[in-house]
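Field guide to reading this record: the first block holds the primary sequence, the second block holds the structure written as discrete tokens, and the final block holds curator observations. Each block starts with its own label. This record concerns Imidazolonepropionase, catalogued under organism Propionispora hippei DSM 15287.

BLOCK 1 — SEQUENCE
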Amino acid sequence: MLAILGGTVYTVSGDIVPNACLLIDQGKFLAVGSRLAIPHDALCLNATNKVIIPGLIDCHTHLGIAEEAVGTAHIDKNEVNQPVCPHLRALDGINPEDRGLEDAYTSGTTTIIVTPGSENVIGGQSIAIKTYGKVIDHMIMRQPAGMKMAFGENPIQMYMKKDRAPSTRMTIAAMIRENLIAALNYEKDLAKGKVGRDLKMEALLMLLHGEIPLRAHAHAADDIMTAIRIADEFGLKLTIEHATSAHKIAEELARRSIAATVGPSITARVKVELKDRTYRTPAILHQAGVKIALITDHPFLPVSSLRLEAALAIREGLPEAVALRAITLSAAEIIGVSDRVGSIEPGKDADLVILDGPPFAVSTKVEHVFINGIEVSNNN
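BLOCK 2 — STRUCTURE
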């Protein structure tokens, strides 16, 4: 058993506990409080004057499938020869030795979504993993964690130069509808014994049956509305990824209880879809009643920048408590793993970060990181 003593614990799901005792046993949080009895056999870690928060969660990265410093040898996030790939699994492309994963856990990010890229109309299946480990199969939290589809510029730019569809936004929407209808027809034919297994159709049926959400890459407001329209037509669970211009249609998202994973905001307006980028988007969405998470889209913004993304959103009006939820508990809820991570509560995985100052101060350093109750980083 481990007892972490004296820190200020931000439970996220409940109160901030000053001068706390945090007990961890068998990889889980056992108890947190100001007046706990410490078992005589517990190992003790002094966290006096420190801040303790849950492990951070990044809902949208390409860690492990868009590796750093390896050239093209391990850039596996897009299959660029066919625009419809629902059967592809990010799981099969992740290298746990990617340096970016070390950057993640040493900076306090302990859970992530790894998603295929956005150059295909249907890119494949995302996965939720812990960021520390040697074998990816032992790091899995949810597989699959969603179906990636991309609306807007990226698929058009990729396939126009190949002289193939899609070349318009209308075509993107039509291709998605065609494949969803094909999956429904496949299901009927399979029940009648007319067809054999089809991995593409099986993957789309998970989406159609509500087992996984549609994770829609969409920056511009009109592209977000197209994703919403298709989700409404087919009864799909939907999360908007990036959501750069979502503040323009915040009420539409709120009315349908559609979550948005916002970011990366620390970027130039390098394409038309980013022309309305503003650090105020998270605050506007929150004020409208939209559940939000903040993302880095690593490697487009380093995964270690997640707290900085939150700090900039706070500067532009997002309440600090909401910002912390946006990179912990709200993110876990959007991913579908909040029963295990996202807050410091008895029974949850003991993923936590010990800081030497306020969570969103630029000068604050990460001193200790624990995943499943094991210390994976010590920068003290």
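BLOCK 3 — OBSERVATIONS
Residues 169-191 form the longest helix (23 residues).
The mean pLDDT is 97.
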